[in-house]
Write a structure and sequence with these properties.
By secondary structure, this protein is an alpha/beta fold. It has 8 helices and 9 strands. The chain has one domain: TIM Barrel (Alpha-Beta Barrel), CATH 3.20.20.70. Strand 8 and strand 9 form a beta hairpin. The longest helix is centred in the middle third of the chain and has 14 residues.
């Protein structure tokens, strides 16, 4: 389906939870987030139904995000359910990698196509500082597990204000040695107006944006950098998706009603 600016929307990013086992300083507020009940989030069946409606409108790619998707109980069952939806050609996941050694075999068996793993530095102390307590060895074990599982792996590196050229060069070499694609993400704030410079791979150029987002609470978000949201009407899911697609702005501005951990980037 085309949006109002003739962009074809083929990509749905789904935040399955706003919970996370890390506290990355650019994603999670230092004070944490308000804990919500299980009933506040979509069921797996509801997510599948939304994906089915989206596929009928031209959605071909799905990515599970969080928070951290692997802390969602039963996540491999959801992967299997969504992978079985006719029309879905690619099913990816963005994760911090910490729990991958536990889940990688089940994820592959369920039909996951690819994994993006977040790692912003190879300095153990800096990694712990950025994640507010995480251990670099855990994400490295997750990367090894993903490679052993023979899934397509990409590393997401957020380039922070204090990232050094040495940080970048070390991760470049790490990925080159393992034949892993590296994606650079420029640090940004949802609360500030989106910048149109495209020094990094992400955020993408608004003119080429092909995605909408589904949040864990059942809200469709047409644009990451916008306060516009459309609650899914389960009596007419396709209509909600159409409204979200047609509500995409020509370019992002700012988002003041959500934290990054709720949207998944």
């Amino acid at each position: 389906m085309l949006d109002s600016y003739n962009r074809e929307i083929t990509y749905l990013r789904i935040s399955v939870t706003d919970k996370c086992n890390l506290r990355c300083r650019y994603c999670m507020p230092e004070e944490g987030i308000i804990r919500r009940n299980h009933r506040d989030f979509l069921s797996f069946e509801q997510i599948r139904d939304i994906v089915q409606a989206g596929a009928a409108l031209g959605i071909r790619k799905i990515r599970f995000t969080g928070g951290e998707p692997l802390v969602k109980k039963g996540i491999t069952d959801l992967v299997k359910m969504v992978r079985a939806v006719p029309g879905i050609e690619h099913l990816g996941m963005t994760t911090n990698g910490i729990l991958l050694p536990r889940y990688i075999d089940a994820l592959k068996a369920a039909g996951l196509s690819s994994i993006n793993i977040s790692m912003d530095t190879l300095d153990p102390e800096r990694y712990t500082a950025i994640t507010r307590g995480g251990l670099l060895k855990d994400v490295l074990a997750g990367i090894d597990a993903a490679l052993t599982g023979r899934l397509h792996v990409k590393i997401n590196m957020v380039v922070l204000e204090d990232t050094t050229p040495e940080d970048i060069d070390r991760i470049k070499s790490f990925c080159l040695d393992r034949d892993i694609k590296l994606q650079f993400i420029g640090q940004y704030s949802l609360f500030e107006e989106k910048r149109d410079e495209h020094t990094f791979d992400r955020p993408p150029d608004c003119r080429k944006c092909n995605r909408i987002r589904l949040l864990a609470d059942g809200t469709l978000k047409p644009c990451l950098h916008s306060d516009t949201e459309i609650p899914v009407d389960f009596t007419g899911i396709a209509g909600s998706i159409r409204e979200a697609i047609l509500s995409k702005p020509v370019r992002g501005c700012s988002c003041t009603n959500r934290n990054m951990v709720e949207i998944g980037g």
